[in-house]
Fold each of these.
Amino acid sequence: MLVAFILFLVIVGSIVFHFWTPWWWTEVASNWGNIDDTIILTFWVTGAVFVAVCLFMSYCVWRFRYKEDRRADYEPESPRLEWFLTILTTIGVCALLAPGLIVWNKYVTVPEDAVDIEVMGQQWYWNYRLPGPDGKLGLTDLRNITEDNPFGMNLDDPNGLDDILIEADDLHILLGQSVKVNLRSIDVLHDFYVPQFRAKMDMVPGTVTYYWFTPTRTGDFEILCMEYCGTGHYAMKGRVLVDNEEDYKEWLSEQINFEEYMASLNKTELIQLALNNKETD
Amino acid sequence: MAADSYEDIAVGKGDPIPALEVKPQDLYHAKSFWTRWIFCQDAKVIGIQYSLTAIAIGLVALVLSWLMRLQLAFPELVPFLGAAEYYQFVTMHGMIMVIYLLTALFLGGFGNFLIPLMVGARDMVFPYVNMVSFWVYFLAVLVLAASFFVPGGPTGAGWTLYPPQAITSGTPGGDGLGIILMLVSLSIFVVGFTMGGLNYVITILQARTRGMTLMRMPLTIWGIFTATVLALFAFPALIVSCIMMTLDNLLGTSFFMPAIVEFGEQSEYSGGSPILFQHLFWFFGHPEVYIVALPAFGIVSDLISIHARKNIFGYRMMVWAIVIIGALSFIVWAHHMYVAGMNPWFGFFFATTTLIIAVPTALKVYNWVITLWKGNIQLTIPMLFALGFIVTFVNGGITGLFLGNVIVDVPLSDTYFVVAHFHMVMGIAPVLVVFGAIYHWFPLITGRFLHEGMGKFHFWVTFLGSYAIYFPMHYLGFVGVPRRYYEMYDSEFMAVSTNYLNQFITVMAIIVGFAQLLFLFNIIVSSKFGKLSGKNPWKACSLEWRTPEVPPGHGNFGKELPVVYRWAYDFSVPGAKEDYIPQDVGPSEVPEAKAEQT
């Protein structure tokens, strides 16, 4: 019977495609390898259901094809069978949900030793801010943004003086050091995503969102904007370089902090308040 | 009104006759061409008006999808298509397909045509409002189409219309008329739908013929009924968000707009919440998925049962599954927002509710395939489409378990995995049901069959073609290919071969699209020259096939309304001479039948 056979081929073809596909995810470069594990688990559980249901269906199509002289069976319902299937499905769903929620709990719980960094999105490029030696990011306010203060730094917050400002497409991070990425946008929604890190979160103007990860191998990775943000969305790219300690220190020494930045513009008087506050601390 | 009113006389056949619950309805009798065919109050004609309008605007969306696919795979063939146009086409394609095609077709089209016929009513309870409903919908379509012709073109904000980008200048149509016309059109649509929707619900609750208890209704009606109730609760969230965004855009209020700096300029906005919009949008948007899916579930249940000559397995479970899915669909909306920046602790709640919904949905699938077990399966074209639906829907459903499970969603959201998932589950699967339903009820509408050879060709190209489009597309998502990219494949993490896959998908999309043109040709030719079908050609049990005239005339039934004695699935009853017993056949007429369900 041709129809049953084609349906059968669709299922077999799907399985073959799955195992032979050249299109699969990139090698993971962060601690989120267990997200991949949850995907694999979901694949096995749901794939088994898909194959079972569809093979059963194509078997029925072949076995019970129309014959003039035959009558279909008459069985309106079967509570036992229906309860059995309900419970089986519930078990399958729990088997997917429980590990998923455990990993999600890890995802939303930032470890103590994570270093705060900030990624700021705007149409259509990325800026970054590192906390400097004090380990704290200075406060910002979008209303402070001017040509001279592109990050909108609060001019009276001493914690901001040593913040390292990076107005470039490249961000460097240190291998093995957990980072909490604070995400900020100044215009529309964006989403900071590196496929190899797996982690992702939208940036929403008016609020600060975050996620954390630990880079597990050195390399040069591409940043993609994953939330539609206007005509230039597809071109909003950047790079993250995961460095070993030596390279990272060298790169860091080439960057300038907010105080130096203002000095380079000859606008040190603007941050006088912050400098005073710093001394009184 | 009511030149000759109908009487409801119960004819004694020795069977107990259910009590008269519904008063006879006065009908409007059209006298001129205008009132008969244009401003018509007959639900059957209104259903066809809805369907034709929806299909017409749907064809526009089909052409847009071709252009988008060409841009992604062979950009040199569409040099006129810039990033702005691409995003405008993406937006309009999505919005048209979801709202103006699928919602209008299932509820306005099938709902209008089938509800009165299947519950045994002469017409909708409010025929005039029903007529107005269609014309308001028609106006909404015109306003939407007009946005193609205004300066700046239609909105390119994506079909989700997320602020701030929906109303900022970095988005096509964001600072012009495009977004305003979209919001106005949606608001008009909701107004029109509410008129129609109240009609469908009240007709089903109040105008069923004698003996048609709720638990004897065909599942098609249960699906349409529940979907309409969902829509009546969900669309208000859409209309208020449209109004609030229009106010933000035109009057400078800040419902959804926080303070922003747009290309170096400080805005006047302050304090609004973009995430509030997302909550409102998805409070509408998730039930919307089921507004499309539930009528499809209902219709496909009937198609499978009728063409397998076997009662639907677990009817009561099927009804409750529809109702439970409908109720749950209101508490899962934020699974569209796992990585949207809402409080991450919501993830636990919404992942749990979302995966719970998988249970009743899976039960429906089981019951469909169990219905085939020991059936007598006629591989008619409606049955082929139903089988294609099951494969497609199961495939699209299980990928919902990936995206619904919050942590699995993190790497997959906003990739082509999502595009593949929702096209499978709420694009292709319901559309296959639409096709199956059209092949099934075309004899009722026109008295003729659609051409079978063309139909088979249409089925195989559509089913296999769209499977070939969307199944491999999931794997682009695993690679990490982002959706809503005007250009791509210059990133080193994507192998060169992703480009070939993309070209394959585009070629398939164009082929599948052309197959639909053949389907339209089939409809046009067969409505005039198709093989005559006669009465009840599929030997179905439900009332729409029991009208004295085919196609059913004004008032649907003859002088007497049918009296219902049984459910709509008495197929292959042991002992009965025929392998089906229609709903209006009393027990005394089939004394030999054993164990019939009543």
Amino acid sequence: MAVPAYRGTNNLQSLRTPNTSRATLWRSKQPQFDSSHNLPEYLEAYQSASPPLASPVTLGVFSLIIINKAGGLIYQREFQAGLRNLSTNDYLVLAGTFHGVHAITRSITPKIPISQPAPFPATSSTGTTVPAASGYSYPNPGVPVSGLDYLETDKFRMTCFQTLTGTKFLLFTDPLTGHVDTIIQKIYELYADYVMKNPFYQIEMPVRCEAFDRHLGAWLRGRT
Amino acid sequence: MAAPPRHATMQSISNGGIAPGIDKPQTQQTQQAQLSQQSPGLRVPSNRKTIYDRHLNRSRNTELSRASFAFLFGEMVTYAQRRVTGIQDLEKRLNEQGYPLGLRLLDLLFYRSTSTSSSALSSSSTSSSPPNRPLRIITLLHLIHGPLWRLLFGRAADALEHSVSPDTPNEYMITDNDPMVNTYISAPRDMSMLNCAAYVAGIIEGVCDGCGFETKVSAHNQPTELWPSRTVFLVRFGDPVMEREKVLERAGVK
Amino acid sequence: MSSTKTSRIGEETRVDKVNAELVTLTYGTIVAQLCQDYDGNYQDVNKQLDKMGYNIGMRLIEDFLAKSGVGRCANFRETADMIAKVGFKIFLNVTPTVTNWTSDNSQFSLIFEDNPLADFVELPDDGRAQDELWFSNILCGVLRGSLEMVNTPVQMQIEAHFVSDVLRGDDTTEMRVSLVRYIEDEMPPEEE
């Protein structure tokens, strides 16, 4: 019997491969384990034959990138076979550029004067005078200013979800793909589980977590 | 019974909940004085809300967030990692962290099996667990495979096997297809041998030692396509245990 | 956000569960290990626990936000409510009381009726632990780490410490939380 885990075991040389010869003395009666209960989520995704939300339009998730607080690319993955690949460098540039554009869209959000308009700012024709920010406010001050939320062409839609911690998830989908918010929310949850709870993951560094890849892939496949 | 030295050192931790620091002679004297007056050295709240005033079964079926466990366990792994030289060393340290848990859980299991009906212990997968300390290897392993696993993870372990190799009659294997402690953990590629369930191996070792079975337990990755984090706990009993086992066998002790 | 709505989020957020005793004993084993590693120097143990909590907080905040789906808090009072009724509810299944506000709304206390981390715990009877060790100090770090990470659009710096603990023989377990400052994140993008 092949025992993959024991191949080339430099660190465990003292150990014999334990199952080269063994007899099953006690194997718990299978039915006793509620298999559905014990199945990991990614298998449940396989199992549920009915598509979630009964929507066939969940197809068309092309790719995902994750950008850290500083604008660095920390994760990139394509979900459809045969997509023309951008080079790693292209992705890095994309991440950095988007990060900048996102910040700009936040800072150019128009501000309106608050209730009592201060003496009209002496705006010269050259527009050099910047009005004091204290006299102005964003429309609907209760709602925080967000940056670019999505970007759409005839062929694709790129949705950006920025968490309150400043991490950005960029999801590339078909423009017709529905429930993008739900998909991104689920991706965020998987990220919270399989990236943030992995002690070997260092915050802000590139994401290399096998369990995250696995669950993300299985969950998205389960949706189609 | 020759208790392994480790058992002895760990015992001090299991008494107070925390390893006592190096006491200054002065404080020891005051403690002794207090003890002789039959008054505890520890202050207690005026409402006497201490561990002795709460029922030990209070938390029996309570649950907490799995995330909280994952974060604490993750931090334990991170902390252990800073002080070790390699994978084996790291696993050893995790094992040592689990060990005192095993000793305590054993008491808890016995306490609960006797204070309620003895059938609580032997509910499903084990048919004949006595409420008392196991004397034979098989009884002990059933205790671990069933009641211990259910207490910790809410279900029994997935398999229990015995080596048939004549060279290793002392080796047993407990399999968990998807160990809860590893749910969120992905070891980096250069540490692919690592299995953080060494912590659980330590718990098993504590239970065995607490029962008087000198054992070494280690956790190994044995992934299958269906179960990528399938783990085998290899339980190796010491020679004195195997000798005693023969005697008990002859004496017909179950 | 209204206080009752906050409570409802705490109640309704779905949480994967695990046996509570495993969590309690695992935390106990961490503290016991530190006491051993630091030779019973409890000040160092407190510091290390706080540091560990900080590391956890930086990660836990993502789980908190992802699972609860809550948005930004409008002020520090709302933050306090969110910590007690959603944060502690989700992660420790307790809801500490928020009280003892200072008049400038920058400091409050969390009073813990129950503390699952300390469920089976008695501090060592060595004449020092009850005066020096804050057994649950990891929680202070968790608060600090998680609040510091919420930086869009404003970052929050806080300080947290325990002022009493039933494990020390006090009648209550109380943590004091202070807002140090808000750090505005209105910097223009640094383009090269």
